[in-house]
Amino acid sequence: MKGQNKLFIAIVIALIVGVGIGGYVHLQYPESAEPFSKNIKLLGTVFIRLVQMIIAPLVFTTLVVGIAKMSDIKMIGRVGTKAMLWFISASLVSLFIGLMLVNWLEPGHVTQLPIQDAASAEELLKSSKGFSMEDFVKHIIPKSIFEAFATNEVLQIVVFSIMFGIALANMGEEYSQPVIKLFDIIAHGILKMVGYIMWFAPLGVLGAIAAVVATNGFEIFKVYAIYLRDFFFALGILWLALLLVGYLILGNRLFELLRRIKEPLLIAFSTTSSEAVFPKLVEELERFGCNNRVVSFILPLGYSFNLDGSMMYMTFASIFIAQIYGIEMTVGQQITMLLVLMLTSKGIAGVPRASLVIIVATCSMFGIPPEGIALILPIDHFCDMGRSMTNVLGNALATSAVSKWEGQLENHGGKM
Fold it and tell me: Which domain holds residue 374?
């Protein structure tokens, strides 16, 4: 734990130093803010790319080993069913909380922001065009597993890994055991790499934060204070709901889980990437006592289907844009929007700025000007910090809960 605490302290210090450096550049050398931001952001890019480098092989090996080790197809079905029930319930709760609070707080009616030029949203508008069921299916089912690996398409890797794992589980041990053992060794070798990569995290955090503050300054916090205040209040309510359910299932061990995942939570918050903490989260959940087969099976699924923070943000941001434009939506329309978001969001895991792409597509569908996304682009980074952190919490709780339901949550903590 000493090493963990050192890393945690280093990340907090990097966060503070990053804000300080970014603020200093913005105030003292505004003409250099853009090039400075571009260069220091490379620190964050290095860290994110190091993590992305091991995502695909880790998801593949851990998921295949997790399913193949189960050997019992009934157990795979049982665990998968429990996981999906959690994911669907958590997604609906997240969407409803976002819907209720944005209607109650009405940030779009209070802020009176001017309608901005849509140029900054042009890239997102282009990427959302042609959104269809065909694209959804293509995004889920891999044309080539090598292409899925090369592009880090987590959802496609998950689909292939589940099928391959089930195939191994149905073969005799004489054939499957050598393959399972090889993949198990590879998975633990990659987890060993995690320890080395995580020491780049403080530099990544410093670079990411300094770049944003240098470019936008502290004014961005003032301009969008009401929106951020309301969004993080809604996020707080979602956290209370998740932690309450977690406490009902895990009891006092919930606090031990939170201590275990404090680094992944902070890194996700600082880097706006829940993907960046996937390897570390696998490691910490196993140490917490979750069965490694359950972790290997559920966590990759969770990263595709259980993005609680992103789900809540999508309803919150969509209705906010409608409020800005003075568009009144009936309760029926809002419930329909919620169900549409529930379905469409399940196919966008791994897509850059996925939440914004889905918001644009949904706004177009309901007659809300999609150009309104330009309104929230300047503060999306800060909202993304909160939703990434919430995604990590939701997946940690889902994995721990299913381990507990399966009677496979060790009280003394797991061993690597």
Answer: 1-406
Q: At what angle do helices 33-70 and 73-105 cross, to 10 degrees?
A: 140
Tell me the mean pLDDT in the region 23-45: 88
- Cβ atoms of 295 and 76 within 8 Å: the answer is no
How far apart, in whole angstroms, are the C-alpha atoms of residue 57 and residue 60? 5
Alpha carbon dihedral 136, 141, 143, 146, in 10-degree steps, equals 120
Is residue 271 included in any domain, yes or no?
Answer: yes
Q: List the CATH number of the domain containing 359.
A: 1.10.3860
DSSP E strands, 262-404: none
Residue 66: how many CB atoms within 10 A of its CB? Answer: 27
Burial class (CB in 10 A: 0-12, 13-18, 19+), 150: exposed
What are the residues whose beta carbons fall under 8 Å from the beta carbon of 339, sequence distance 6 or more? none
Whether 411 is in a domain gets the answer: no
Query: Mean pLDDT throughout 291-302?
Result: 82
The tens digit of pLDDT for each residue in 77-112 reads: 888 888 888 988 998 899 899 999 988 988 877 544
Q: How many domains does the chain have?
A: 1
- Domain for residue 398, yes or no? yes
Q: What pLDDT score was predicted for residue 415? A: 45
Average pLDDT, the chain: 80
DSSP 3-state of 54: helix
Residue 360 has pLDDT above 70, yes or no: yes
Residue 320 contacts residue 356 (beta carbons within 8 Å) = no
* CA-based radius of gyration for the chain: 21
pTM value? 0.70
Under a CB-based contact definition with an 8 Å cutoff, are residues 302 and 274 in contact? no
**Domain presence at residue 416:** no
Report the 10 Å Cβ neighbour count for 234.
25
Q: Amino acid letter at 111?
A: T
Cβ partners under 8 Å of residue 119, min gap 6: 374
Interval 16-38 mean pLDDT: 89
